[in-house]
Structures
1.
Amino acid sequence: MITPNKLAKESESSHQVAFFAYCAVAESHGFEVADEWCDTGKINRIKSKPLPCLQWIYHIPNGGSRGDTKKARMIRGAKMKAEGVKKGIPDIHLPFPINYLNIWWHSLYIEMKKPSEKPKRKTSKGGMSDEQIAFREYCVEHHFAFATCYNWKEAVDILKMYVDPN
């Protein structure tokens, strides 16, 4: 059976696929069942709390390949910009507000990066562009949760802390 561990390779994209596979199971069956599925490859119907808020989690297609030739990339890039694509916007968004420690957080953004981009020092940018860092600062200032994750498991841990902080 396919599990997130089998889906996740070295690429950012494969870790996003693994994360969304986990989210699909967690939405219907809860975190406990999704965790067990990751470990065993089986979905057991143990008592667990479904997470309907996860039906709204989605990927924001701001990056990725735009064509094989320079001309194709330029045309696709111009079209995407005209459609509203912006530099610095994170990969994943969960529009689900929570109140944590008497502070309302409006939603959660996750920026995914390749595992190989994980910073070795706290002062490192960790693969984040200046625009992504500026968006992160905007989010924190305006009570949107933001995390940079370097694999699907880190993203799941952030999701769990956000959705059920207790």
Note: The beta strands are 58-59, 92-94, 98-100, 103-105, 108-112, 145-149.
2.
Amino acid sequence: MILFAYRVAGILLFELTGTRWLLFIFPNLFENWFLFILIRNRYIPRLRLDSPARIGFWLLVLYIPKLGQEYLLHVAQAQPWNWIKRTLPGG
């Protein structure tokens, strides 16, 4: 819930200011966290998330690749779907 609220705060700030880099600073990390928890529960249930430091570590690990995606989409305003359409057969 905290990750969702964090993203919503970023969206609200973006809507109020129009500053796109705010979406980069407030990434949509809750989906990645949800998938991480599902994978952990299924395949590595012994992986402990019993302290803020452990949770923070895994959030940082998930945040690193997400930064690249958020940068491409919201700062550079790249549209990867156009590249996919041009590159894949039948697109």
Note: The CA atoms of residues 82 and 88 lie 10 Å apart.
